[in-house]
Amino acid sequence: DGGITQSPKYLFRKEGQNVTLSCEQNLNHDAMYWYRQDPGQGLRLIYYSQIVNDFQKGDIAEGYSVSREKKESFPLTVTSAQKNPTAFYLCASSIAPGGDQPQHFGDGTRLSIL
Amino acid sequence: QKEVEQDPGPLSVPEGAIVSLNCTYSNSAFQYFMWYRQYSRKGPELLMYTYSSGNKEDGRFTAQVDKSSKYISLFIRDSQPSDSATYLCAKAPGNNRKLIWGLGTSLAVNP
Q: What is the pLDDT of residues A85-96, one digit of tens each?
């Protein structure tokens, strides 16, 4: 079955540590997205990529970095510069870039601070 | 004013009830609308995707768009306990790459 796989499901970060969240899709979608979800704040866009080797900042990119070396993969690194990283992180993809395309989501990674 | 407004609830209904979930939006430019369902500790799942005004039906779910009043609704007929989830509306503003999301409405269907 085609879909989006996020790993790990739960992740713990120590102070000063960078951590990387994995996102893999086998839907052959061009565009991929990272969102952060906090209680009462809805979905906030961190980064998105329209095509391999290209990505753009979303609304809350500070303290995060991404890469898009393969069509199937869009890992997110939460750096030590992100001072409030505790949240539910969601990866999504759409068949093509463009605000009119529905996005399909993975089941998220919950990141907590030790 | 947020571009998409959604009452967070929680909304609690008995099993079998008709549920009405609503969003309002403030910018009329180019409008695709989506409804997503999100179970606890899971990612959102696309339920409905519509462009035009009027109704779109899929099983027990009906999405309604009223562009004159800038109102979008999701109706759930014969609601089931398995419908208990958070429902998110989203608006696609066209050339902008980013969907605009409501905060979600929490629904509990009680057996």
A: 999 999 999 998
